[in-house]
Known about the structure:
Elements: E1 32-33, H1 44-47, H2 62-69, H3 95-109, E2 114-115, H4 118-123, E3 140-142, H5 147-160, E4 164-167, E5 184-187, E6 194-198, E7 203-206, H6 212-219, E8 224-225, E9 238-242, E10 245-248, H7 255-261, H8 268-271, E11 278-284, E12 290-292, H9 306-310, E13 319-326, E14 328-329, E15 333-340, H10 344-356, E16 363-367, H11 369-378, E17 390-397, H12 399-415, E18 422-424, H13 427-438, H14 440-445, E19 453-460, H15 466-479, E20 483-489, E21 494-501, H16 503-523, H17 542-561
Parallel strand pairs: 3-5, 4-5
Antiparallel strand pairs: 1-10, 2-3, 6-7, 7-13, 8-14, 9-10, 11-12, 11-13, 15-17, 15-18, 16-17, 16-20, 19-21, 20-21
Amino acid sequence: MLRNLSTPAVRSYRQIFGITRHSPGKPRLNLVNSSKRVYSVDTSHVSHPRSRSSGWFRPLVAASIASTITGCLIFSIGDSPSENTYQRKPHYATLEEMEMAIKEIHRELGEDSISTDDEDLKMHGYSEWSSINIDRLPVAVAFPKSTEEVAAIARVCHKYKVPMIPYSGGSSVEGHFSAPFGGINVDFMNMSDIVAFHPEDMDIVVQPSVSWMDLNETIKSSGLFFPVDPGPPVCGFISVINTEQLLITVMQAKIGGMIATNCSGTNAVRYGTMKDWIVNLTIVLPDGRIIKTRKRPRKSSAGYNLNGLFTGSEGTLGFVTEATLKLASIPQKTGVGVATFPTMRDAANAATQIVRQGIPVGAVEILDDVQMDVINKMGATGRVWKELPTLFFKFSGTNVGVHDNIDDVRKIVYDNQGSDLEVEKDPAKQAVLWSARKEALWSMLCMRESGHEVWSTDVAVPLSRLPDLVEISKHDLESLGLFGSMLGHVGDGNFHETILFNGATERDLVSKCVHDMVHRAIQMEGTCTGEHGIGLGKKEFMEQEVGEGSLSVMRGIKLSVDPFWLMNPGKIFDPQEI
């Protein structure tokens, strides 16, 4: 049954400990976190994107909820525009209109189609892993089962001017599924099917809630795989930090979110990013229209590249409900290698030299000494590692090719003061050797003390500037006395910082550290984000990176496709900036 929305959408929440997220139609994953953190009510979080809450919610006061539901931060003045008028200051639904929209979706799609359950709202509006959280939640969560149902939801939301926020894997670290203007969160969990598989054409058609790991497991017998591999989950990886905190990681990236952020992963140095593997997309537009970007050829010169337009748009232009993806052949032979170095600069120099010399490594990843120490402390890999800056390599190809590539890499490692390259060619032993890279982020998260926070961010720079940026950023972390690690896909100039901190005493230091790193990357002709996306967290860097001219073109596209600012509003840039 739907609740009356005149009651606060968020009441006192019991501590989440082994609770199962509400799931109309399908069982949901368990998210366990018992930290006793307080979620403060501070409206400045909307206007200052890098402000963060300090943890799980305390009851939000009725006034805060009312401001979310009744008007959802109404910006406009005067009469409502005609359907053909571009809106610079959008007018969002009133309380009564919000109730009408939810009831209409309920009538049209059925009882399990939409939820106003407190736990659903919380799970879809707040993330322990995000670098930014705000003090507003969606007022409902919809669970469509098909493209047509997504279109029906969009038509209703368009009719009443209700914001829509997409949700797939929940692994965003930049606030992508936050609801700064309230609205309805659209969870694609019931759209997790492989629609069609064409092994003879080396492509596959999937719905947005298919995970890349499940996809590869399903098709591995065909000799094909999907190579884009953002950080995997660690299902069942349990860490007891103290008697008050138990963490089980259950998130994993899904195809919809991967497209929305143009994500990449460890394989990017060889296989590229998400945009390189998309054949076509089925998109639901803000008014409920359904489009398909093109047919099914592996290349096309017909008209505008709509795949490129929607990929990386973070759900601000339309929602992906189906995607045809290219596949690659599983390599004949593989290998994994590991080498340590005296300094981060030595490791980064080796990585960039390997790429510049054209050695076709499958992956080259860097982990600093702090990260290696954390992995040892967590004991997640079954071996003890040297606590030094470390490069992890993947090799793939023919037997002869892999052998030659390993020899070439070994020489470059030696020339940069590296250790002897440890190599495994047996698949089972490769998994053990690669496990440190796989478990790196989650090991770091499990070090977080109760009540403390995490800030995970990424940048990317041209290869020649990578050693400089890595060295300076490492020095900044240490000089500020912060506990943070560095890791990343250095083969294409991309790396991450993950900082654990006490929000009450260290927030300003962490903010300075991250901002300095991002500004420095942009000054080096790099980017504020190589794969995480902009979301709420990195909007402030957009103009510095792309310039006002390019930013105005992006805003113009947004206005043309979504004149009422209904789809994921507040991400990439704000309505009031127009």
